[in-house]
């Protein structure tokens, strides 16, 4: 395993590198996207009064780029024309995986957006686990399950957004677990990409999204959701420019 670490580091660096500006500006023009937003209550858009979460601002960005976009999923929330998603309120990665198992053959996405792990971090903190060992494994299984269920789709996996430790009694412990889960997500994405899967990382754990963008312990404000949309949009531009996203 030690000999693979430099290769995985290089793969992660490559996945994080931006595409040339020319391709980033033009690759979405006329592109058909069938997107499955997959995750927990953040994917659902909880605490956003409109129920749109990141999905409507992302849809608006894609429409401005002239991409032909459809959102898929078993559930519907929001006040725009593509309200479908697979966001499960309060769900750990295990519960999300169970839901995906039940519904996966009802949709055929060419792109999956996965943001999951906050509730895993919270559960581990609530029982004061020294390390979120079970959570790390369940998040990894969910990533692999998404590539198994939708093998022709490209997969964007987020390093999950931070929590606000001041809003919860186990907040510091939960954020520590979020950090551990994010490191596992980075490793898994880099490893799977190195071995040929069309999977890439979108880092929402550092930079524009902070505790100031949350309305409670874990859920963004509308402005915070818009920042998530911006990050997803950049990730989509990059993988479309690489030719990873097939036609629906």
From TrEMBL:
Domain of life: Eukaryota
Signal is among the record's keywords: yes
Organism of this sequence: Cryoendolithus antarcticus
Molecular function GO labels: phosphatidylcholine lysophospholipase activity
Domain SGNH hydrolase-type esterase: residue ranges: 38-226
Keyword Signal annotated: yes
Database matches in Pfam families: Lipase_GDSL_2 (PF13472)
Official protein name in the record: SGNH hydrolase-type esterase domain-containing protein
Keywords: Signal
Lineage of source species: Eukaryota, Fungi, Dikarya, Ascomycota, Pezizomycotina
